[in-house]
Amino acid sequence: MMGSNKDIKTSFKKGMIFSLKYNNGSINKYYSIFPADTKAEQRKLDANLKYLQSIQKKLNPHFDEFERLSKQLPLK
User: In a 3-state reduction of DSSP, which class is residue 7?
Assistant: First the structure.
């Protein structure tokens, strides 16, 4: 996951996470805030975001852990 370390869950719900890769068994999803090169690729990104948002409750503990750990690192 790439993005800010603040309000991750809210940003994700709005589709404003910089990028996110999700792998679970045979399920592989990728989302990026940047527009795709083709309409077909954009439809795939949009479908991936919709799927990932549908399992947000499963992802929330990971978002919380990421926020907690990232706040322990000094930013330069």
Answer: coil
**Which residues on neighbouring strands pair with residue 24, listed in sequence order?**
27
Could you report the per-residue pLDDT of 15-49, keeping only the tens digit for each? Answer: 888 889 999 999 999 999 999 999 999 999 999 99
Contact 19, 32 (CB under 8 A): yes
Contact status, residue 9 vs residue 56, Cβ threshold 8 Å: yes
Burial degree of 50 (CB within 10 A; 0-12, 13-18, 19+): exposed
**Residue 60 token pair:** 């929330």
pTM, rounded to two decimals: 0.80
